Amino acid sequence: MEPPVEPERLRASDADRQRVADVLSAATAEGRLGLDEFGERLDAVHAAKTLGELLPLTSDLPVSGAVTGPLRASGDGSGSPSTIAVFGGTERTGEWQIPAVHRVRAVFGGIRLDLRQVRLSAPVTTIQIIAVMGGVEITVPEGVTVEIEGNAVMGGFERRAAGHGPPGAPVIRITGHAVMGGVDVKRDAR
Predict the structure, then answer these.
(1) 20 to 30 A from 104, CA-CA: which of 23, 59, 79, 150?
(2) Smallest Cα–Cα separation from 174: which of 132, 70, 182?
(3) pLDDT in tens, 84-96
(4) What are the domain boundaries of the chain?
C-alpha cells in the first residue's frame, strides 16, 4: 500500500487555478497588488501544476477565502461559482444554471452575462462583481426584482435596471466594484 500523497504535491485542477485567480483579482481591485505583480502572479497560476505551486501566490494576501490548503470548487454544484475574463472576453448566454452566489471578475477583459434563460438556484441570487480596467454587461429578464449596489472609481456602475418585479418574484442582487472599468445592467427589451 502506497503512502498518501502530500496535499502540496496533488495536481491542481482548473477550479483550483480559477479560485486563486479570483483571490488575485479581488486583491488587485482592492489595491493590494499592482497590475504588474497581478500579471506575474496570474502567469504563475496558469503555469502551476500542483497545489503547492498555487499556495504561495495568495499567502501574503489578507483576502477572505485565501488559499491555505487543498482547494475545492466553491458553490453547491448547482452552477459554476464564477465567470472570469482576464485579457480577453467571455459570455454566458442561453440556458445555464447560476448558483445562489456567483462571482464575476473582469480584469482587462469583458464579460457578458445573459440571464434571460438562466435557471436560478435560489430565490435570491447574488452576483459579486470586480471589474478592473474591464467591463461587465448583464441582461436581466422582466419579472424579477433587481437590486444594484456597486461603486466605481474612474469608471461606471449603472443602476437603471434596478427595480421591483411582481410580489414573490426572484431577486437578483448585483454588488461590487469597478476600477477604471464599467458595469452595465439592463433589462430585457423584448
Answers:
(1) 59
(2) 182
(3) 888 888 888 888 8
(4) 7-57, 82-187
